[in-house]
Fold this protein.
Amino acid sequence: MDLEIDIEGWPAGQWEALAERVAEAACAVAPELANPRLVASLIFTSDEEVHDLNREWRQRDKPTNVLSFPMLEREDLIHLDPDGPPEMLGDLALAHGVCAREAAEKGVPLDHHAAHLIVHGLLHLAGHDHEISDADAEEMEALEVKALALLAIADPYAADHQ
C-alpha cells in the first residue's frame, strides 16, 4: 500500500514517518492492505476541516478524531489482483485538536494516539467495522492492538477491559 500524506494544521513532527511505519504495521496484521496496487490518502488536519467533512459526508455536525472514507468493498479488496494499475483504497482525515485532547485525557503521547487512530482508520478502509457487532468490535480491537504492539505502543484498550 502506498500512502499519500498531507500535513496541515499539525505541529512540526515526524508525522509522515509515523504514518509510514503505522501503515507497515497495519499491513502486517491485515495482509489485504499489503497489496502493492493500493493507494490511500491521509491528511493530518484541523478540527474545523474534520468537522466540515463529518457534517458533509456523515451528517454529524461535530469534529471527531478520525474519519475514514473507503472506496473499495471488502470483497473487492480481498480479491484484488496484485498486478495492475493503482487502486484507491480510500481517504483518512485526522483532527489535531481532538486527537491532542484525547491523548492528554488518556495520558499517552500524541504520536501514540495518532498511530492508534491511523491503524483504526486503515482497518475501516479494509472493511472492518466495530459498529456491526461486539464480535466485529473485538476482532478490530485485536488487530489494532497487534499492529500497535509491532510499533512498541501499549494496548490502548487495556484500561477499558479492567
